[in-house]
Input
Amino acid sequence: MNTVLIVDDERSIVELLTVVLKKEGYAVLSNPGAPSVFEDIEQKDIDLLICDIKMPQVDGMDVLRRLKEAKPTVPAIMITAYASVKQAVEALRLGALDYLTKPFDIDELKILVANGLEHRRLLEENRILKQTFREESSFENMIGKSRAMREVYGLIEKVASTDSTVLITGESGTGKELAARAIHANSRRKERAFVSINCAALPENLLESELFGHMKGSFTGAVSDKKGMFETASAGTIFLDEVGETSPWTQVKLFRVLQERTIRRVGGNEEIAVDVRVIAATNQNLRKRIEEGKFREELFYRLNVISVDMPALRKRTEDIPVLVQHFLRKHCEKMGRKVKRMTPDVVSALMNYSWPGNVRELENVVERMCAVEERETITMGSLPSDIVNAGALPAMGSPALIPGFNLETHLDKVAKAYIQEAAGAAAGNMRRMAELLGVSYRSLRYLIKKYEIKPVRGVEPRGDSRDLPPEPTEL
Output
């Protein structure tokens, strides 16, 4: 039940408003215009104020000022018998919702009260949404205490206060959008819009319209003028995910926006100035794509003012236990279950897996375990088979630890050798290769792409032709 505070020195007005508002379902508090009204504003839970401007003990304008200082989202309706444009303008300037003169129309007052309470509800909802966004975009949601993640946090803190363009790189599932949101949430633009678009999800013609907007009649289906995301993100931040997938023509237009800070809608001639911070992300090697003629060099340098590289999960395995605990709490609570525990062998299996899908894949696995395990303790039986089998690969002899030895390079060589051996043994059948290696089909596709392994030549493939490994560029 919403509570309305009535402040008026005329007892008949207070009694009338009390009867009317209670019939409408509101709780009513009243004050005869005494100095105690300031304590009422400070200490009592009110949702709307109705206040006379001219009262012998206190000035209604002072009451309005105190309300806006103490509770800025609470709307106020000011009433007076002395109508004047000057008073009305002053009351509205101080933040009053509206202004009525005595004698007033009760039905009009009812409408104003209803509108005022709805206005407050929307303000509170907007405040909560902004607070939720800031909480979800804070560093607390970027889980990890490894050295690699601490370096990321430090860099984000440094760049957040600037307006510089940021390019976030890293494999799929490493949390690039989380990093972008953290930059925005810690910037001076945090109260304005954060607009995100996946550049790989739309065809070129639709992407251009989404980014820059269009004019009515500019193409079939353009039935009205439409703002693009650059305009929507005005004074805020736009996040261009998978920017490496954009077409050469779109790259030209993006470069122009970054260069001139203006956009032109599809089918339009007007140059529209935009004040927006650009954060882009990609899982591609853009320098390599420049060499291949697939990405414009000038755009790369415009985007790559500040570079933030999100580390793969396999490079920060010490963060896996804390990530698992975070996801366990999150998904068990979402499913209405007690937070589960894990046996040591489950934790060990999760630590030993390569996680080609990174943090996103880990969260999906934890959610699956929360769903399928009915007991309070998660055991190996709840793990997907590819994770269980990941530790079953044959061990290699330990290499000599000589100067210049690099563990990651050595492990990559070992993995590549096993995949090539499996390719020959399985005659190019990828599903058979995955079985031999004890990994999932998806993981195998990722590894083939990573190590640029070509299909086995001169061997007649067995099984469904869809199982053949495609050329790495097609993966």
Remarks:
- The CA atoms of residues 259 and 287 lie 20 Å apart.
